[in-house]
Design a protein that fits this description.
single chain, 5 helices
């Protein structure tokens, strides 16, 4: 996938735990863990907005685009 989730980096910078962030954002630890580990295919704007509010960051701090390199077979 060309989108990379950088939630773990922002959480480390802010020194906030998964449980604390999940409680403040209002989502389960399991769903936040899936998001943190890039195991999701979508995120609601309301969740993204809540993450940005709690972490005092911009959406671009959490999600990066990296162009995929196509391999010729």
């Amino acid at each position: 996938m060309a989108l990379i989730i950088r939630l773990d980096r922002v959480m480390a910078d802010r020194k906030i735990s998964l449980k604390e962030l999940a409680d403040e954002v209002g989502i389960t630890n399991v769903n936040l863990s899936k998001l943190k580990n890039g195991k999701v295919t979508a995120i609601r704007f309301s969740t993204l907005e809540a993450l940005c509010k709690v972490l005092h960051c911009q959406p671009g701090d959490l999600i990066e685009y990296e162009e995929e390199i196509e391999e010729n077979s």
